[in-house]
């Protein structure tokens, strides 16, 4: 019979304390090193890019890119419409030749998806005094627009909701098109320095 006294000794809570402490250190995080708030789903699952002054001064937009290639498009916090008194009061997807909110994409192959250029209009956002065209920023297939904004344009005004429920559209670019447009976008750190936004 083999002698297993060494194995029993290492499983003993009194023996092998170094391994126990190491395991405890790896499994239980130091409370003082944790952030005050957990990262949002956007921070965890998307890479944030920004298109400052897209086609016109003050027309700042974000492009959140998921690992699967989808791009979520919306208004950056510094967009001129969000800085006006009262913020966005209405959103109209009836721009161009078709009403963007009427687009219904189906199936795995995204049948009925319309293809747009980066400068194509997605919608018009209105404030008390003016209206602004929101552009695609990315060349690709328009998969979805956020039609909740038609009834709830205020979702764009809330800094807590703007990047979750207040997105404008979801676009799927081809990989080659994404690489071209990515070069024209800036990351979140550059955006913060440029716009002095926290």
How does the major sheet shape up? 7 strands, antiparallel
SSE topology string? HHHEEEHEEEEEEEHEHEH
Average pLDDT number = 83
Ends apart, CA distance between termini: 68 Å
Order of strands in the sheet with most strands: 7-10-11-3-2-1-12
Shape: globular
Tally the helices: 7
Q: Structural class from helices and strands?
A: alpha+beta
* Number of β-strand runs: 12
Q: From the alpha-carbon coordinates, what is the Rg to the nearest angstrom?
A: 24 Å
Query: β content, as a range?
Result: 25-35%
How much helix is in the residues?
10-25%
Low-confidence stretches are 5-10
What's the SSE blueprint?
Elements: H1 5-11, H2 17-27, H3 41-45, E1 46-51, E2 61-66, E3 71-75, H4 80-83, E4 90-92, E5 94-95, E6 98-99, E7 114-116, E8 121-126, E9 131-135, E10 140-145, H5 148-151, E11 169-172, H6 175-182, E12 186-187, H7 188-195
Antiparallel strand pairs: 1-2, 1-12, 2-3, 3-11, 4-8, 5-6, 7-10, 8-9, 10-11
Walk me through this protein's architecture.
- 24% of the residues lie in helices and 25% in strands.
- The chain is of the alpha+beta class.
- The protein has a seven-stranded antiparallel β-sheet with strand order 7-10-11-3-2-1-12. Strands 4-8-9 form a three-stranded antiparallel β-sheet. A two-stranded antiparallel ribbon has the order 5-6.
- The longest helix is centred in the first third of the chain and has 11 residues, at 17-27.
- Mean pLDDT is 83; it is low at 5-10.
